[in-house]
Amino acid sequence: MTVNAVPRPGFDAELRAGLAVVGGMFPPTITPELIDFMRVSYASPPMTDLFRQHRIDVTDVVLPGYQGADLTAAVLRPRDAQGPRPTVLYAHSGGLMFGDKFSGLDLVLDWVSELGATVITVDYRLAPEFPDPYPWEDMYAALEWVAAESGNLGVRRDRILVAGASAGGGLAAGIALAARDRGGPRPCGQLLDYPMLDDRLITASTAQFDGIGVWDRVSNQTAWQAMLGDRRGGDDVSPYAAPARAGDLSALPPAFIDVGAAEIFRDEAIDYAGRIWAAGGDAELHVWSGAFHACDIFAPHTSVGRSMIRTRNAWVEKTLAD
């Protein structure tokens, strides 16, 4: 394991205690050899009891993905819901290489049970078996399907929010860009939790976290290599795969971006928000002091984790409202 020698912001004391627990399930450094391990370690536990506690009905569906491939997805609705609902299309975390449609989903169940929204979460195909453009094209196909089937799904066509965490946040940003450029369904907002946006690994925060925390520089390199192969870091990278590559961030849906100050995605997330503002767009940016990557998933009980979740949910409620 590489020893981090670059000065970096420290972790919040409460979160630092949680890192020791996280490391057994989610190593700080993920190499290609660990992808199979992560697909087991990061697989979602059974969710049935949690859905029941939140009074959420779950429907399994199959939708057409990129090039017509069958994708499995789950539609979560509040029990006894009636009429068209605001809806969140959700892309899970896992570095584009692992995870499933229920990864990290316990954090968004309040959107269903408390806000009355429908959440649709998708098993997009994973790299390296399915590299660029499969993951983002699958999610874009899901967006088109949700819009086209809005009547059958009970979805308000004018209130479709795209959201995701980590790699899923990058996918949400990518499909918001693709929808703008292709004249596709326009989301009412894009929620980008500590998003994975830039394949170039050139920021100061990327260099600050090596062999420490959750998702370090090598993990990020592994993920982008799986997604882009030899194109990683070069000139021929699609902005829909790596949204930081987009030259134009104008005319996008309102964005919510949050990120930890003590993680590698800090600087690319800040830059993305700044470029949206520079293009005349709307972005709400939160940088959480002492927060490691995805600390709200791994340590939701902490003060920082609770604040992240509360702040995010408030933005979702505002954005999904009339």
UniProtKB/TrEMBL annotation:
PANTHER family assigned: AB HYDROLASE SUPERFAMILY PROTEIN C4A8.06C, ALPHA_BETA HYDROLASE FOLD-3 DOMAIN-CONTAINING PROTEIN-RELATED
GO molecular function: hydrolase activity
Xref: SUPFAM superfamilies: alpha/beta-Hydrolases (SSF53474)
Name under which the protein is recorded: Acetyl esterase/lipase
Keywords: Hydrolase
Pfam families: Abhydrolase_3 (PF07859)
Alpha/beta hydrolase fold-3 domain span: 88-295
